[in-house]
Amino acid sequence: MNRRKRHVEACLGTSKIQTQHDLQKALSIWQLSMPASYKPRSDYGSAQELADALSLEPDSVLALDLTQGVVHERHKATISRDKKRSANQHKKKMEMSFFVHSPTQLFQLMHLAKRRRGTRQIAVDGTRGICQLLTTLIVVGAVSVRYRKQATGKEKVTSSMRPIAFVHAAGERHYVYVQTLCELRRLSMILFGIDFEIDWGTSDHATAFVHAHLQFNDSPHMCDDTEWETNTEIEDGLVVKPEATTSLETLDGDNEEGNANHNC
């Protein structure tokens, strides 16, 4: 922790993060930087092997800022056009959003992406007020169902979550979670050469998560355009782009408790 605090102090001149710009600078310290010679592959046998290929340790901390980047700009433009929502409104909902992961979590992502169609199940759970400023921690992971041996020696079918990303956000927000799924898809393609998709989504039935699972299942490619221009034209506060995009659910983007099922 002290080592990471020193990194932030060296970057900002202080260990206190007071603005979104400070947060972006701090997160840049831990962004994934792949070796120039890296080639996508999906046959890693362990998290250690993947970490070695990335010149990292299995538990190295990696951070991905959800408030900027190619996927962010693509998602913002899609939202702004399809729902006539201004870029400023989208920016406000995405404030303070980022996720933390590691080569070990990337290894779990690879295994989830490689599962056969119909078995790719993802789980998500958010806890409010657990972070500084009473913000929300959202844990995203792969669902592992298997026989496990109990202390008595008997085997029992159990289900557990294998974490893939730990998301920090202002709340359980639809936009944040959809963009997280799109970022995981991009990482899967860059690192493993696999198009990440999901068949099932598990959560506490929070509306933001339910609709995000349905939307990503229907259009996993919505933010795949890596050539998307970040300097898109702005008219009356709306991002304007000529090509067609996937329409969105009529959802505000914030979480409300609901009773919807979300097997995709």
Task: Describe the protein.
It contains eight helices and eight strands, in the order H-H-H-E-H-H-E-H-E-E-E-H-E-H-E-E. With 264 residues, the chain is of the alpha+beta class. The protein has one domain (21-33, 42-240). The protein has a six-stranded mixed β-sheet with strand order 1-2-5-4-3-6. Helix 3 crosses helix 6 (103-114). The N and C termini lie far apart (40 Å). Mean pLDDT is 77; it is low at 227-253 and 255-261.
Features:
alpha+beta; 264 residues; six-stranded mixed beta sheet; globular
Number of strands: 8
User: What percent of the residues sit in helical stretches (DSSP H or I)?
Assistant: 25-40%
Strand line-up in the sheet with most strands: 1-2-5-4-3-6
Strand content is 15-25%
Overall number of domains: 1
Main β sheet profile:
6 strands, mixed
Order of H and E elements = HHHEHHEHEEEHEHEE
- Derived from helix and strand composition plus strand pairing, the structural class reads alpha+beta
Calculate the mean pLDDT score and round it.
Answer: 77
From the N-terminal CA to the C-terminal CA, the straight-line distance is: 40 Å
Morphology: globular
Rg measurement, Å: 19 Å
What ranges have pLDDT less than 50 throughout 5 or more consecutive residues?
A: 227-253, 255-261
Helical stretch tally: 8
